Amino acid sequence: MSRVTVMGTGYVGLITGVCLAEIGHSVTCIDIAPEKIEQLRRGISPIFEPGLTDLIEENLRSGNLWFTNKPEEAIPQSEFIFIAVGTPQREDGSADLTYIQQAAKTIGAHLSILNTVIVTKSTVPVGTNGKIEEWIKDSLHATIPFDVVSNPEFLREGSAIQDTFQADRIVIGSENEESAQRVAALYEPMNIPIFNTNRESAELIKYASNAFLATKISFINEIANLSEKLGADISDVAYGMGLDHRIGTAFLKAGLGYGGSCFPKDTNALVQIAGGVDHRFELLESVIKVNQQQPLKLLNKAVQHFGSLQGKETAILGLAFKPNTDDMREAASITLIEHLLAAGAKVRAYDPIAAGHAQKIFGDRIEYSGSIEECLHQADMAFIATEWEEIKLLPLSIYQKQMKHPVIFDGRNCYSLAEAERHQIDYYSIGRKTSTFIRK
Ligand SMILES: NC(=O)C1=CN([C@@H]2O[C@H](COP(=O)(O)OP(=O)(O)OC[C@H]3O[C@@H](n4cnc5c(N)ncnc54)[C@H](O)[C@@H]3O)[C@@H](O)[C@H]2O)C=CC1
Ligand SMILES: O=C(O)[C@H]1O[C@H](OP(=O)(O)OP(=O)(O)OC[C@H]2O[C@@H](n3ccc(=O)[nH]c3=O)[C@H](O)[C@@H]2O)[C@H](O)[C@@H](O)[C@@H]1O
């Protein structure tokens, strides 16, 4: 059992803290946001993540997990300090290291002589772990031994706990073998393959992994755009490609493009990191451009269908950037809604859990529906922006029943073309033939 402090109770900090507590370590999570700590002490998770509340409650009860906003109550007693604070995007696309620097200074101000290993979980530009070391040194009041190790995080929102306990690999980037072994020992009960490397490589593995997955998505979206023009069906094309084990089926789902708190931010950051060493990352620049244009392609289909969108009652099904999360950061739904509003459409939206976030973004510029049926009622057109189970499995007869005449712009390819035809629905999707019903 080791004593661990986790700095930051966002997605990564909370999941890291809770999972380390679950395997028997004594974990204190600290945050500068007092309201989060207050909630967490009462067992309330500030984020929506399946299974997380149970794990928080369980580990609070067992005494393995504590929450505080006072670093002095945690850092001096810890053998490991995980940094899991945010690294948001600056205006120019580069990563903002303000929170990282603040966390490093806090660590330096409270570090004791336990030969503590600082473990960086946050996604940080190559070279940052070296800077963290310097920032900590600059804040120390005496000569105190410590080490800084890179340990990037690969979890996905919505399946974060499973991703942690069944991770493909744990990457540990260290300049010192003993520190690397100590971090590896922490994770031993999880029985996950460990890959050891130096800090710079570990930092780059994180950005390269996200950028590669983003590239797969933009690639398949381009093939989808091509499929539409060539009469191919993207579902079959992606499936047929994925049968080659060298390609694999994962991340070949065409749609509205990638959103979320990380792919857009990290692809932009990697372009900046490359630029910093005089390398123009043209491939990644194109990936980003394709992604920005993808939701507009579906909107254009609506413009072509109706001529003008002025006054059109529009239902948006799904707001979150993907299912099983209430996160709307960089969600394709935002692009869709902003463009629809600009074109004069009247928008109402439904999402099982993300409406609260939407309210902060759109206020009363759109309406919020309490159910799918209410959202679709008397609508001229419906956009499917997130493939929540209840949206994906919604019978097409509900669209027929609720809408004026069912016209669906499906950004997540939830239905088969045959089904849409059977229900006599004007059905537009991504990378497939349009199914238009000629009204008598
Ligand atoms: N969200 C995700 O699914 C993943 C995120 N990452 C990376 O992990 C990092 C954290 O991401 P999120 O958890 O989403 O961030 P977040 O922004 O949701 O949470 C960060 C938390 O850190 C707290 N914080 C800021 N400064 C602090 C300090 N000095 N001391 C203590 N707490 C402090 C904030 O109040 C906030 O609660 C980012 O670098 C992100 O790129 C990596 C993999 C997955
Ligand atoms: O660094 C991060 O924060 C994380 O970013 C992603 O995780 P996440 O953003 O939670 O979600 P994903 O499931 O990867 O989906 C990202 C976006 O890509 C889209 N996507 C995904 C897969 C696909 O085939 N097609 C597709 O359009 C999703 O709709 C979503 O908008 C990575 O998958 C994680 O490994 C990484 O740790």
TrEMBL record:
Active site: C262
Residue ranges of every copy of the UDP-glucose/GDP-mannose dehydrogenase C-terminal domain listed in the record: 315-417
SMART domains xrefs: UDPG_MGDP_dh_C
GO MF annotation list: NAD binding; UDP-glucose 6-dehydrogenase activity
Binding site for NAD(+): D31, K36, T87, T123, E157, K265, R329
Reactions performed catalytically: UDP-alpha-D-glucose + 2 NAD(+) + H2O = UDP-alpha-D-glucuronate + 2 NADH + 3 H(+)
Source taxon at top rank: Bacteria
Name of the molecule in the record: UDP-glucose 6-dehydrogenase
